[in-house]
Amino acid sequence: MTEVQLPELSRLRWRCRRGMLELDLLLNTFLDAEYTSFDIQQSELFETLLDYPDQVLFDLLMDKMQASDIDIAKLVDSIRKANTKISREKANVTER
Amino acid sequence: MKRRQFDTLIIGAGGGGLRAALQLSNADTSVAVVSKVFPTRSHTVAAQGGMNAALSNVTQDNWHWHMFDTVKGSDYLGDQDAIEYMCRAAPKAVYELEHFGVPFSRLDNGSIYQRPFGGQSQNFGGDQAARTCAAADRTGHAILHSLYQQNIHAKTHFFDEYFAVDLLKDEEGHVLGALVFNIHDGEIIVIEAKTTLLATGGAGQLFRTTTNALINTGDGLGMALRAGIPLQDMEFFQFHPTGIAGRGMLITEGARGEGGYLVNGDGERLMERYAPKAKDLASRDVVSRAIATEVRDGRGCGPNKDHVMLKLDHLGEAVIQKRLPGIRQTCITFLGIDPAETPIPVFPTAHYTMGGIPTNRYGQVVVPVKDTPEEPVFGLYAAGECACVSVHGANRLGGNSLLDILVFGRAAANHIIEHLAENRYHLTMDENSIDKAMENLQRWDQKGKTDGESVSQLRDELKAVMEEHCSVFRNEDVLKQGVEKVEQLARRLKDARIDDQSSVFNTAKVEALELDNLMCCALATIHSAYARTESRGAHSRMDYTERDDKHWMRHSLYSLESGLDYKPVRTKPMSVDSFPPKPRVY
Q1: B333 and A87 in contact by Cβ < 8 A?
Q2: CATH code at B440-549
Q3: What is the ipTM of this complex?
Q4: What is the model's pLDDT at position B194?
Q5: Which residues is B557 bridged to in the sheet?
Q6: Contact A21/B213, CB-based, under 8 Å?
Q7: Which of the residues B18, B41, B161 would you substitute to probe the A interface, choosing the one with the greatest number of A C-beta atoms within 10 Å?
Q8: Fewer beta carbons below 10 Å: N end or C end of chain A?
Q9: Do B334 and A55 touch (CB under 8 A)?
């Protein structure tokens, strides 16, 4: 496993800057939570996803559309799960 | 230092910038578009609603009725010449987009479908009109992609992922281009241009809770203010009553329409007190102020008592899944809660910057010079949300923002073409101006500086202060404290630091420069809001609840050098009679 080094992370982070707030939050939350465990393949796959137009990304990540590419579909699923998990953790902290 | 020359430099690649670029490239001028993100990731993509034009495809309609609605919606602060121009130009703007390839939704007879939006009327305040053209729920996306493709075809030169630091100008105030740098490798370029168009969008990131993307940091507004150009009507910021607290995403009015209601920290249905009849379906500003008042009076929810709750769980899972699936998905993803079981934390969310860089209806940036309130700045133009032309006045109508960017992006380009015909050569670059811009950039490069505060901490503080002191709950005390706090933050920012000194994808530096711009916007917004002792449109004061046309039917202008100034509203349209101010009731 190759650790993703700076400035690679900065570059990815900048590419997570999108035209919609929802995408900013979903992509950055995922990047923060998972990037240290990325290997080369995952990093490349994430970049492929970042090349998608904002509206398509939005529809995929908000579960309005399914990706036909299995790997992308899996990645979308992990981005959604990572966000829901972190949101739940935050919500529980707030409850307490 | 590398230098490039173009006829026109456009900063910002959303709908306004791209519409102007296309017009200019098609007229064989050399155009550079500088954008800090890839153009199709501009915030225009988030405009899902649509674009107004009196096409009469669904209901009988007329540009003059559209004009009336816009003037009334603006609470009579909009400039009526610009509004007439925009409403007359609207149908043409729609047909142009159609030719560029935007797939507008259709009626069975093949003509463009139009949906009704709030504030649209027939016959000057009569029956509901249906005026909004849309490409399903992805109008902004369709417009942005079509314009980008057209620009590629027209050979517009794009500087993608470049950040514009400051405008360059000579001693006479002529604008000569901008200093920019490449976010990829830090390379600095002086772009010399005979004309410069600012099209950088709004400044929603001023507030903690906002619907705006992270890129909306008011960069053009900051650049203009630092170049000595005042910002106009910045106290007018449009809020939606129910955004997800602390995160910003919109929970549409549909949730309350389906029977959802708001509760405070004591579990009370709060709207019963503020609007006994309409309750949770009262108008947006009433609901927004009610929420902010509850929080302010200590009746908020959560450990910090900084929001209220929107209850939907009583509707049952089946109804929520059927009628509000999008809201349910949003809550599960961003809050980790299911609204069928748990109430949603909400707070008013900042949505649209009505104020901005003052322009006339040709897109020329205009400033007061001696006795002239609107003297064009040589070589400088602005269009879209960063500009204040002013068609939205104190309050923007739904469907008018996409129209604004397209009509005035095009108008600015047409004026630039005329300007270029009369001014064929580049003026001599002012080297002092480059040095000054370099100073603003390089102050973030001081290696080993470890004692300053961090940019992210200051940004979070600024957003919290703006939310507490300058969102929907405004009065003398709240605003006065806000002015002091923002001034103090501006002083602290001068000594702030960043840790990353690399030149490759130094996003820390970009964020620091963005904070410089946000701070400019914050100063203009809070000073203008504090001074305006009336309620008009989106600016609502608890201590001055009425509109005061006698003293305040005028535009605010805030500059860093001389503070506040005012100029009259242009109440005279181009060809028709003025709409005199009336109470704004719907």
Answers
A1: yes
A2: 1.20.58.100
A3: 0.93
A4: 98
A5: B232, B565
A6: yes
A7: B41
A8: C
A9: no
